[in-house]
Amino acid sequence: MIREGDTMDWTEDREAATQTLKDILSSNQVTLAAPCFNDEVGRPFILETYGGPLAVGGVLIQRSEEGRERPIIFESRTLNSAERRYSQFKKEVLAILHCLKTFQAYLFGRRFIIRIDPTNIVGALKNYKPINPAIGRWIGFIWQFDYKVERIAGLRNRADGLSRVCITVEGVEDAEPIDAFLEYEGGTLVVDHEMADPATTIGQLLIHTLKKGAPAVVAELREGLVTTIRRKEEKDSWGAEVGAKEELMAMTVEGGRDAVMTLAEAWAQKECQYLVHLTREEQGTKQKEQEFFLIQMCEGVFKEIGLLLVGNKQPTEVSPKTKEEVEKYVLRNDHLFKKEKGMIPRRVVCGRSRQLDVIQAMHDGLAGGHRSSKGTLAKIVPLYFWPGMIGMVTTYCQTCLICQERSSVRVYEPLRPTRVQGPGHLVHLDLAVMPVSTDGFRYILDARDNLSGYVEAVALKKKTGKAVADWVEDFYLRHPFVRRFIADNGTKFVNQEVLNRLKTLCVPIKITKPYHPEANAPVERRHRTLKNTIAKLAADNLGSWSRILKQAVFAENMTPKRITGCIRAELWYGREIDFPIEALAPTWNMLDDDQHLSTEELITARCQQVTRNEEALEEVVNRVTDNRMRDKARWDQVKNIRKEPLQLGENVLVRNSALESTWSGQLGKRFKGPYRIAKRVGRNTFELEDLDGTTIRVSFPEQRLVRFFSRDPVEQWLQEVQDRETGELTV
């Protein structure tokens, strides 16, 4: 810059600098590229967006013929005071919304790429659950475009700088909300009446919009002279006209009207309805009617059947299988139906995308309610048909995350029966709560033998560790042939007092898991019998139950056990027991007792008694083992037993057991996850980790875990559809 009236010495250096500046400004590195609309697959449009603290920005990019990405147009937008308080997630979605609206003339109706940085935005664009109504409207508008999402590092995002411009306070306050256009457009793409001419093609529509410019279109929208881009004679891929039927369909498809209209417009743009017809004369009239068949909607043998029914092919031109099956099908209103005996004809559905649409509407939609595979099939089978339908519906319902989280199915582990060799090999301990007696006793501590059922019990006033340890020690010192104790994981047994006392006695104790209470069933199930006996004996004074306890235990031990058929005390001590009444009314055994036997005869009699006891014990052990194996077979048949054991690396869900005991959790998720099995820490216990590798420092029993079925099969079906569509566009 020079002052007015001054002169400047124009030297060769300044001339060279000016020319260099001209060359740079006119080079391909600086000038914006012109858009190309003829190569959607090889040179797709690329949209990069970024949401900053004060503004949002974006840049539309396209590869040149040499394969180098060049910008076409830049865009940035000031955020008002309300939008500046949005979370970063909402700002990122808002940036995409603004850029799609601005570049609508370039992108709508074409396949393009969106490049964004945050991972949570990528997930929302693929599968967003409507939590926030505002974001739901934004995502609904974004889903109307045909795009592919790619992640890009923040340092490489060229739109980052556009969102960091300096904004004044006045500019912030005067800025119009970015999503304001959704209020007067209803969240759908619109054009004027001239652009909605039935004869206008998609390509002409895009060119017309480009000539008009986005500001002119927005001005006309504000004036109210608008109409939808949908045209009267457009048909979706199901052969139905795009009209009021979509409003009805929107009630049954998750996502509502926006999702339905998006599907309808996408189908209308991507698919071309090829019709073949056969003219036939009606008997007695000269009128001719046209019978049509939608070829593009059928594949394989169904396509041949349809062409054969309309006469476009002769029987000699189709396969033998088609000629055999053609009698089972009929055409009606351009569509192919399969005839079934005793049923109405069922609509034939071809193509993974249409088949998934049916399953989604019947499972996820308003008429679905996320029912089981059987319930969903009961609604689909009477109406539609395609090969492999049962397996496809079962897989879709089985992999539904919502259904897995709310599943009420319990999976049980196979029973492992306990095998004991004799009395005292395994003794169960437990503590039963009783009404307070007149003497102040509140609990019954009992020990019961696993094989014979022999029981001993004592009344306690407090369930302290010392009281439990003292009685267990007294029991063992009177019965030193006890090999092992087993108890639940209550604090009355799992404490240092009891564990140290048993360690001193050199008697091991096994603590059962909280999710396997059946391991201590021999003592817990007999509490009811013991309490009933006490209640009957102390009927006149229930408060004196503590004084009746020894008598109730004696009566229990003198009663034969059903499974063994032997008196509990006889099997425990290994000798015959005399009942008190036998002293007053002698029985055969009492009368047969000879007091004049010699020592040798007494020893011989004792040896014979021991032999009989060993044989009887072996028979009892076999009888108990057979009975427990029958119980296992009955358990495995009635319960839902896990067919295959869980393996390391498998994805699982964890049962949320806290919901089972709360009223407020009735509508919560019954399962949490998914997680991955990281380590086995016991026979039926695992350590889990999140899918990102974070270890959960809590072990989980196998009974709380169920397998997680991912959506990989469904995603594979969708990928096949996308690959097929891409191949057709390339051809």
Automatic annotation (TrEMBL):
BP term (GO), one: DNA integration
InterPro entries listed in its UniProt record: DNA/RNA_pol_sf, Integrase_cat-core, Integrase_H2C2, Retrovirus_Pol_polyprotein, RNaseH-like_sf, RNaseH_sf, RT_RNaseH_2
Sorted UniProt keywords: Multifunctional enzyme
GO MF, any single term: nucleic acid binding
Top-rank taxon: Eukaryota
Residues forming coiled coils: none
UniProt keyword annotation of Transmembrane present: no
Domain annotation Integrase catalytic: ranges: 419-576
Protein name: Integrase catalytic domain-containing protein
